[in-house]
Amino acid sequence: MAKPAPIYDLVLMLEPEAADDLRAKVLADVERMITASGEVVGDHDWGTRKLAFEIENHTDAPYRLVQFRGPVTLLEELNRTLRITDGLLRFRIVKVRPGTPEPEQTAHAEPEQAATAEAVAAEPVQAAEPVA
Q1: In a domain, 87, yes or no
Q2: What is the C-alpha separation between 44 and 71, in angstroms, rounded?
């Protein structure tokens, strides 16, 4: 029996001063890229959160979590495209381990969950490693 394709988390930190139509375009482009060769499993708006440290003179940013399944080529395309996308402060793609709890559903985080999100935001952006 074939193993199901892994789920990936794409955490986006949108630029707080970007126009709403630019933010909507970024999210629509991400969804379009994912659905072209994979599938969106979940989309969670985490709202605006305080950053662990200042990024480009911003102390807070709107967070978005997109969960998806797709091939390694999709990870490479997302990584390449999001690096040059206007309206984003940071992004991170992470492979979800089996048994990981479901993400929070609302924009209001518990303090320990907010700290986890800030820790993800504090990590430098790296290319996703191909995962077998």
Answers
A1: yes
A2: 22
Asked, for residue 104, whether it belongs to a domain, the answer is yes
**What is the pTM assigned to this prediction?**
0.73
Domain interval for residue 13: 7-122
- Which two three-digit tokens encode residue 18? 């970007």
Count of the separate structural domains present in the chain: 1
Question: What is residue 119's predicted lDDT score, i.e. its pLDDT?
Answer: 53
Query: What CATH number does the domain containing 59 carry?
Result: 3.30.70.60
Q: 118 with 49: CB under 8 angstroms?
A: yes
pLDDT tens for residues 71-90? 999 999 999 999 999 989 99
- Return d(Cα 93, Cα 123) in angstroms, integer: 12
DSSP 56-102: TTEEEEEEEEEEEE--HHHHHHHHHHHHT-TTEEEEEEEEPPTTPPP
